[in-house]
Write a structure and sequence with these properties.
Blueprint: E1 9-16, E2 26-34, E3 40-46, H1 55-61, H2 65-68, H3 74-84, E4 89-92, H4 95-109, E5 121-123, H5 124-131, H6 136-144, H7 154-171, H8 180-186, E6 199-201, E7 207-209, H9 219-225, H10 228-235, H11 240-252
Parallel strand pairs: 1-4, 4-5
Antiparallel strand pairs: 1-2, 2-3, 6-7
Length: 256
């Protein structure tokens, strides 16, 4: 079953120097941009991350420092990429927890806001885990009846993710709607205000602190009772997206 789209959606996958958002960087990005008319554009880009790629990361994706030493940095390609990702929804495999926050952080480090809050995000892994609970390789075998060749190659993983979602729409047609808004809601594990889910929405739509000593407390109340909380977070080891979200919340509740 092909996706029904109201606006473009980009399936993408990242290979990185590591898993720490804010410290590690992207070395490869593959995306498939699908248009509502069925046209698609696929591209794989490699970047010089500006830091050494650890051996344990090389062992996973096979990309070495030597292979990317002459590649452009992410900052050099960021303006062009921002236009490609403009006005698009996003999809991937484990993307809500890793790929989207990592991508947004890289753009933020370049001073570019890709307006993540305006995008609907479909995480195919979450559909799989809710329905079957397996890995991408197993998901591809289960839903598509094929072995995933070149696993951990960004293009192979991205293409497999797209095919798995289309197969899921067929298999779970009585549960899943062929609608990006529905899929984004269905794949959301928690309603994060920021991408790292340091702040989340409760059932009433109130922004809640989701870590530390104020976990479970309304952000508005914490900012009012402990003004130092904002300063501590802005000076701390949090992602730019989290800090920008806190700034926005502080402005929203100023004087309230």
């Amino acid at each position: 079953m092909k996706l029904k789209l109201e606006r473009p959606i980009i399936f993408f996958d990242l290979e990185t120097t590591g898993l720490t958002i804010g410290k590690d960087h992207i070395v490869e990005l593959c995306y498939i941009r699908l248009e509502p008319n069925g046209c698609e554009r696929a591209e794989t880009l490699r970047f010089n991350p500006g830091i050494p790629i650890p051996k344990e990361s090389c062992d996973v994706h096979g990309i070495t420092d030597k292979e990317v030493k002459d590649c452009p940095t992410f900052a050099e390609k960021a303006p062009e990429l921002a236009k490609i990702f403009e006005d698009c929804d996003l999809a991937g495999y484990n993307s809500n927890r890793f790929d989207v926050p990592m991508l947004a952080e890289e753009f933020a480090l370049c001073g570019i806001d890709i307006h993540i809050a305006e995008k609907r995000m479909v995480d195919v892994q979450n559909i799989f885990h809710k329905m079957e609970q397996r890995t991408l390789v197993a998901a591809y075998k289960f839903y598509c009846g094929k072995n995933l060749e070149n696993a951990h190659s960004a293009l192979a993983d991205t293409r497999a993710t797209l095919e798995v979602l289309e197969a899921q729409l067929d298999r779970y047609s009585d549960t899943l709607k062929n609608d990006v808004s529905f899929l984004a809601d269905f794949t959301q594990v928690m309603r994060g205000v920021d991408l790292a889910c340091r702040f989340i929405y409760d059932e009433k739509g109130v922004e809640i602190v989701n870590f530390g000593k104020y976990k479970g407390k309304a952000v508005r109340d914490v900012l009012r009772k402990d003004p130092s909380f904002k300063h501590w977070m802005l000076q701390g080891d949090f992602t730019l997206n989290t800090k920008q979200t806190l700034e926005r919340l502080a402005l929203k509740y100023a004087g309230k």
